[in-house]
Each structure stands twice: as C-alpha cells, then as structure tokens.
Amino acid sequence: MASVSIDDVTKIYEDSDEGRILAVDGVSLEVEDGEFVTIVGPSGSGKSTLLRMVAGLEDITEGTMKIGDRVINDVQPQDRGVAMVFQNYALYPHMTARKNMSYGLKLTSDLSDEKVAERVEEAAEMMGIEDQLDKKPGSLSGGQQQRVATGRAIVRDPEVFLFDEPLSNLDAKLRVHMRTELQRIQEELGTTSIYVTHDQEEAMTMSDRIVVLDAGQIQQVGTPEEIYNEPANLFVADFVGSPSMNTFDVELNGNTLVGEAFDYHLSDQHLERVREDASDGEQLILGIRPENIHLAESTEENAIRAHLDVREPIGSDNYLYLTMGGEECRVRVPGDVKPEEGTDLTVRFDESNLHLFREKTGRNVLADVEPAAQAQASGESSVATAED
Ligand code: ADP
Q: Do 134 and 166 meet the contact criterion of CB atoms below 8 Å apart?
C-alpha cells in the first residue's frame, strides 16, 4: 500500500487535426495510503487521462507524480506497483479466466508457478469465481468477466488499484451489486484505490473522497457529504445530485434576494456571510436542492406561491414540478404528501441548505470549503481567486 501524490500535473496532447489539447490542467491531489478516491466529471474532463498518467500509459507533460516516496514520471508501467481494471475488461479471449489472471503476474514477477496458482485461487475466491476459472471470457457473463478482470488486478498485489469506469458495461442492477463488491474487496485488502467514473451516484456511494473534474481542472475535493452539501461552485452543485439543484437568478438588495418569483429575506447569520463576498446590487444565483423545499403555510416567512404542474410518484417519494413566476422548480416530498395537480400551493426553502453562487465566478459564497479546493474552483479559476 502507498499514497499517491500528484503535484501540478498537466497533460497536453499534440493532435494532428486539432493541435494542442489541454486534457489535464495543473492538477494537484494527495491520495492517502489505503484511501478510496473517485474522480468524477463529464465526458472529456480529463479523468481517464489523469488515471492513465498514474498507470504510466500516458506521458506526463508537466508536473510530478509519486507513489509513496518514489517519483514515477519515468518509471515503466509494470514497475509502478499499480494494477488497472478497465471498462472493457481487456481480457484475452483465447485464454481461460485462470490464464488471464495469472498471465501478467508470470510475466512481471519471478514468483513460482505454485505461488502464482495460489494467488489466482485466492483472488478467485475473493471474487466468487472459483468455479469459472477454466472458462474462456466468451462463455462468461459481463459480471463474471468484470470479476475476472478485478481478480487479475488483485493477484498482482499492487500498491495502488486504478479503476477506469469498470462498471459502465454492466446493467443497472449488476452495477449496484458490483459497487458493494468492489468496496468490500478494497476494504478487505486496504489497497489505495483511484476510481474513475462519469456516474455521480457511483462516486457518492463508493468513495472516501471525491474529486470533481471539469475541463482538466479540479473543481472540488471532498467527502461525498461535503461535495453534496457544500459544493464549492455552481458546476459541482449542478453535476452532483439527481434531480439536480434548482437555481434562480437573484439580486442582493439590502437583506433581500430579489428574484423573478420571490423576495427572499436572509437571516442575519446568512447575511453576514453573504456580505463578506457580495455587495448590494450584485447578481447571484440561489441554489436549493429538491428535497430542501417544503410545503408551507402562506403566512410563513419567505413563503413562495407556486403552481403545481405535475406530481410524479417515485415510490417512497413524490416529485413535484412547480412553476414560480415563470421559472420551473423541482421539489421532492415524502410519498404521503400528495397535493393536487393543477392547483396553487405555497413552499419555503430550508435556509440551512441554501446555496448562493456568485454569477461571475460560480463560487459558492456560503460553503466552508478549504482554500486548496477553492483555488482551482470554477473554470475562471485565476479570475475567481484574484477577485475573491
Ligand atoms: P474523460 O476520461 O473525462 O472522458 P479524457 O481524459 O478521455 O476525458 O479526455 C480529456 C481530453 O483529452 C478530451 O478533450 C479528449 O478528446 C482528449 N484526449 C484524450 N485522449 C487523447 C489522445 N490520445 N489524443 C488526443 N486527445 C486526446
């Protein structure tokens, strides 16, 4: 086991058609020994490139990567102590599961055949595929192939596991099952793991910490709770959570946020925080998650009139699709809360879960995010830090 240290790493691809592509842009990240860190972000945000640089499958254009105390920039992939599990499993079709699992280890280590066989048996048992070892990939299900691919990584007893969207090719139910299985294996082995996915739900459920990437830059690093409850900026707020956070354009006017559909009076506590960052007349974006909006009496403070267009039952909860002064808003309420479709109602925002973003930089002025994460926050990072 070992830590992984990524220090100001940049990757530029020289593409014959498109010229220079800045895929990873000055990323710094410390992954602790034994930690499970997930890198999440939209397609093209640089997740795979970052992971492939750790694996040694891509050169590092600038910056330094270390595993433990060792700088690995120029170390061959097989000598880095990493094992990677790919999205397409990358199994040899003509080899049995057993051979697939042992092949790499035999090539790269001087372990005896007995020792290799023993490790394969152990890993297969861990993955629950002992009785599949003599089959070839073509006669295994997607889930079994994925287990063989993970087993192959386990037999190498690496210092670091690298997972590149390993569950994307599985159906939804199996994906959920394999999530818990991979977590169990990681906990059992305690191996430092970096896991790339575009699936925010996977990231939220599996990780010790999540790294949110956009356009090659880190937007935020934090525990799943921090990322969800205190998104550093509008990008993170919007990317994480389903259905996504509601957002409304507002203007700060004294102690009030004036929007198209409502005037929202801030409590003194919030006002103090907002005042540190924003001045009167400033354009802000108010963000509130669907589960943080509640039905209210019209006499309550900050009550907002809305029209219920659609009520959608999703089992335990109902989604309410509202319009407020021409703006759409999604609300999540318990399943036994069933207002009539097509009627007017009143809602209120849960102030403790209110988010306010500066329009110019996207920065969340109410989040307590560590400065390191803020430094790169928002695509306009240098502008954001200079201004804030
Ligand atoms: P993600 O894994 O988040 O989808 P990638 O790391 O695959 O993102 O890609 C990041 C950026 O780098 C994208 O703009 C992509 O087109 C570009 N890119 C990735 N691989 C190559 C390559 N081999 N040559 C040129 N550009 C590449």
A: no
pLDDT at residue 373 tops 60: no
Nearest residue (CA) to ligand 1, atom 20:
49
What is the pLDDT at residue 89?
A: 78
Q: What value does the CA radius of gyration of the chain take, rounded to a whole number of Å?
A: 24
Among 11, 13, 53, name the best residue to mutate to test ligand 1's pocket (greatest count of ligand atoms within 8 A of Cβ).
Answer: 13
Q: Report which ligand 1 atom has the smallest distance to the Cα of 42.
A: 3
Domain with CATH 2.40.50.140 in the chain: 234-370
Of 4, 20, 142, which is closest to residue 12 (Cα–Cα)? 20
C-alpha to C-alpha distances, 179 to 58, 147, 207, 208, 226, nearest whole angstrom: 27, 12, 10, 14, 21
Which residues make beta-bridge pairs with 236? none
Whole-angstrom distance, CA of residue 134 vs CA of residue 103? 14
Give the C-alpha separation, 53 to 49, whole Å.
6
Question: Taking CB atoms and a 6 Å cutoff, what residues make up the pocket around ligand 1?
Answer: 13, 15, 21, 23, 41, 43-49
- Our measurement of the distance from residue 98's CA atom to the centroid of its chain's CA atoms, rounded to an integer in Å, reads 33
| Residue with the larger pLDDT of the pair 225 and 106 | 225
Burial of 131 per CB tally in 10 Å (0-12, 13-18, 19+) = exposed
Check residue 286 and give its pLDDT. 97
DSSP letter at 385 equals H
Distance 374 CA to ligand 1 centre (A): 24
CATH number at 234-370: 2.40.50.140
Q: Residues 314-326: what's their mean pLDDT? A: 93
pLDDT of 374 over the 90 cut:
no
- Whether CATH 3.40.50.300 fits 4-229: yes
